[in-house]
Specification:
Length: 167
Protein backbone atom coordinates (compact mmCIF):
# COMPACT_ATOMS: atom_id res chain seq x y z
CA UNK A 1 0.00 0.00 0.00
CA UNK A 2 1.27 3.39 -0.94
CA UNK A 3 -0.43 6.77 -0.92
CA UNK A 4 0.39 9.06 -3.81
CA UNK A 5 2.39 12.23 -3.30
CA UNK A 6 -0.91 14.02 -3.95
CA UNK A 7 -1.99 13.23 -0.39
CA UNK A 8 1.12 14.93 0.98
CA UNK A 9 0.68 17.94 -1.32
CA UNK A 10 -2.95 18.25 -0.29
CA UNK A 11 -2.25 18.10 3.44
CA UNK A 12 0.60 20.61 3.24
CA UNK A 13 -1.41 23.07 1.17
CA UNK A 14 -4.55 22.69 3.28
CA UNK A 15 -2.39 23.40 6.32
CA UNK A 16 -1.58 26.85 4.91
CA UNK A 17 -5.28 27.57 4.44
CA UNK A 18 -6.24 27.10 8.10
CA UNK A 19 -5.52 30.71 9.10
CA UNK A 20 -6.71 32.48 5.93
CA UNK A 21 -8.85 35.45 6.87
CA UNK A 22 -12.63 35.03 6.71
CA UNK A 23 -13.95 36.01 3.31
CA UNK A 24 -10.57 35.59 1.61
CA UNK A 25 -9.41 32.80 -0.65
CA UNK A 26 -6.04 31.53 -1.78
CA UNK A 27 -5.12 30.69 -5.35
CA UNK A 28 -3.46 27.57 -6.66
CA UNK A 29 -0.58 29.66 -8.00
CA UNK A 30 0.19 31.04 -4.53
CA UNK A 31 -0.07 27.63 -2.89
CA UNK A 32 2.16 26.02 -5.50
CA UNK A 33 4.68 28.86 -5.31
CA UNK A 34 4.82 28.73 -1.51
CA UNK A 35 5.27 24.96 -1.45
CA UNK A 36 7.42 24.70 -4.58
CA UNK A 37 5.21 22.20 -6.36
CA UNK A 38 3.60 21.97 -9.80
CA UNK A 39 0.65 24.31 -10.29
CA UNK A 40 -0.91 21.94 -12.83
CA UNK A 41 -0.71 18.94 -10.51
CA UNK A 42 -1.98 20.95 -7.55
CA UNK A 43 -4.97 22.10 -9.63
CA UNK A 44 -5.92 18.46 -10.16
CA UNK A 45 -5.60 17.78 -6.45
CA UNK A 46 -7.75 20.77 -5.56
CA UNK A 47 -10.38 19.68 -8.06
CA UNK A 48 -10.65 16.41 -6.10
CA UNK A 49 -10.71 18.25 -2.76
CA UNK A 50 -13.46 20.52 -4.09
CA UNK A 51 -15.52 17.56 -5.31
CA UNK A 52 -15.15 15.94 -1.87
CA UNK A 53 -16.37 19.08 -0.09
CA UNK A 54 -13.08 19.78 1.66
CA UNK A 55 -12.47 23.08 -0.13
CA UNK A 56 -14.78 25.32 -2.09
CA UNK A 57 -13.84 27.51 -4.98
CA UNK A 58 -14.29 31.26 -4.92
CA UNK A 59 -15.01 32.63 -8.40
CA UNK A 60 -13.64 35.80 -9.94
CA UNK A 61 -10.32 37.40 -10.78
CA UNK A 62 -9.22 37.23 -7.17
CA UNK A 63 -10.80 33.81 -6.79
CA UNK A 64 -9.19 30.76 -5.33
CA UNK A 65 -10.11 28.31 -2.63
CA UNK A 66 -11.26 28.37 0.96
CA UNK A 67 -11.84 25.51 3.39
CA UNK A 68 -15.39 24.23 3.00
CA UNK A 69 -15.47 23.07 6.62
CA UNK A 70 -13.61 23.99 9.76
CA UNK A 71 -10.14 22.56 10.20
CA UNK A 72 -11.47 20.50 13.14
CA UNK A 73 -13.90 18.76 10.76
CA UNK A 74 -11.36 17.81 8.09
CA UNK A 75 -9.55 14.58 8.91
CA UNK A 76 -6.49 13.06 7.32
CA UNK A 77 -8.79 10.25 6.15
CA UNK A 78 -11.11 12.75 4.42
CA UNK A 79 -8.14 14.05 2.44
CA UNK A 80 -6.80 10.58 1.64
CA UNK A 81 -10.20 9.41 0.44
CA UNK A 82 -10.64 12.55 -1.69
CA UNK A 83 -7.28 12.03 -3.40
CA UNK A 84 -7.05 8.23 -3.54
CA UNK A 85 -10.70 7.21 -3.69
CA UNK A 86 -12.64 4.93 -1.38
CA UNK A 87 -11.73 1.51 -2.76
CA UNK A 88 -10.44 -0.94 -0.17
CA UNK A 89 -6.65 -1.39 -0.10
CA UNK A 90 -6.87 -5.16 -0.12
CA UNK A 91 -8.69 -6.84 -2.97
CA UNK A 92 -9.33 -10.50 -2.17
CA UNK A 93 -9.22 -12.61 -5.32
CA UNK A 94 -10.46 -15.75 -3.49
CA UNK A 95 -7.46 -17.74 -4.70
CA UNK A 96 -8.18 -20.26 -1.95
CA UNK A 97 -10.81 -21.61 -4.33
CA UNK A 98 -8.09 -22.42 -6.88
CA UNK A 99 -6.41 -25.01 -4.67
CA UNK A 100 -5.49 -28.00 -6.83
CA UNK A 101 -6.82 -30.46 -4.25
CA UNK A 102 -10.38 -29.04 -4.36
CA UNK A 103 -13.23 -30.14 -6.58
CA UNK A 104 -14.06 -26.85 -8.35
CA UNK A 105 -17.60 -28.06 -9.05
CA UNK A 106 -18.27 -28.86 -5.39
CA UNK A 107 -16.32 -26.37 -3.27
CA UNK A 108 -16.70 -26.84 0.49
CA UNK A 109 -18.46 -24.17 2.59
CA UNK A 110 -15.09 -23.35 4.17
CA UNK A 111 -14.04 -21.98 0.80
CA UNK A 112 -17.25 -20.24 -0.26
CA UNK A 113 -19.46 -19.22 2.66
CA UNK A 114 -17.01 -18.15 5.35
CA UNK A 115 -14.74 -15.17 4.90
CA UNK A 116 -11.15 -15.74 3.96
CA UNK A 117 -9.01 -15.32 7.08
CA UNK A 118 -6.42 -13.33 5.14
CA UNK A 119 -9.11 -10.93 3.95
CA UNK A 120 -10.47 -10.55 7.51
CA UNK A 121 -7.03 -9.64 8.88
CA UNK A 122 -6.30 -7.20 6.06
CA UNK A 123 -9.66 -5.45 6.42
CA UNK A 124 -9.24 -5.21 10.22
CA UNK A 125 -5.84 -3.57 9.70
CA UNK A 126 -7.28 -1.16 7.15
CA UNK A 127 -10.13 -0.27 9.52
CA UNK A 128 -7.68 0.44 12.35
CA UNK A 129 -5.65 2.70 10.09
CA UNK A 130 -8.80 4.45 8.86
CA UNK A 131 -9.96 5.10 12.44
CA UNK A 132 -6.55 6.45 13.42
CA UNK A 133 -6.45 8.80 10.42
CA UNK A 134 -10.02 9.94 11.07
CA UNK A 135 -8.82 10.98 14.53
CA UNK A 136 -6.17 13.32 13.11
CA UNK A 137 -7.66 16.58 11.87
CA UNK A 138 -6.29 19.51 9.96
CA UNK A 139 -6.65 21.56 13.17
CA UNK A 140 -4.56 18.96 15.04
CA UNK A 141 -1.91 19.11 12.29
CA UNK A 142 -1.81 22.90 12.41
CA UNK A 143 -1.38 22.91 16.18
CA UNK A 144 1.28 20.19 16.04
CA UNK A 145 3.31 21.89 13.30
CA UNK A 146 3.10 25.50 14.44
CA UNK A 147 3.18 24.94 18.20
CA UNK A 148 5.46 21.93 18.56
CA UNK A 149 7.63 21.50 15.48
CA UNK A 150 8.50 24.77 13.74
CA UNK A 151 10.05 27.85 15.36
CA UNK A 152 7.57 30.45 16.68
CA UNK A 153 8.12 32.92 13.85
CA UNK A 154 7.19 30.32 11.20
CA UNK A 155 3.46 30.71 11.75
CA UNK A 156 3.43 34.50 11.58
CA UNK A 157 5.75 34.47 8.54
CA UNK A 158 3.48 32.03 6.71
CA UNK A 159 0.32 33.97 7.55
CA UNK A 160 1.96 37.25 6.51
CA UNK A 161 3.19 35.78 3.21
CA UNK A 162 -0.28 34.57 2.24
CA UNK A 163 -2.02 37.74 3.47
CA UNK A 164 0.30 39.85 1.30
CA UNK A 165 -0.50 37.70 -1.76
CA UNK A 166 -4.25 37.78 -1.17
CA UNK A 167 -4.59 41.54 -0.81
Amino acid sequence: MKFSVGVEYALHCLLYMVKIEEGKSVGIRDLSTFQGISETYLSKIYSKLNKAGIVKSAPGVKGGYTLARSAEEISFWDVIEAIEGSESFFQCAEIRQNNILLDKENLPDTHTKCPCTIKVVMLEAENQMRQYLKGKSLAWLYDEVYNNVLPEESESSMIEWFNNRIK
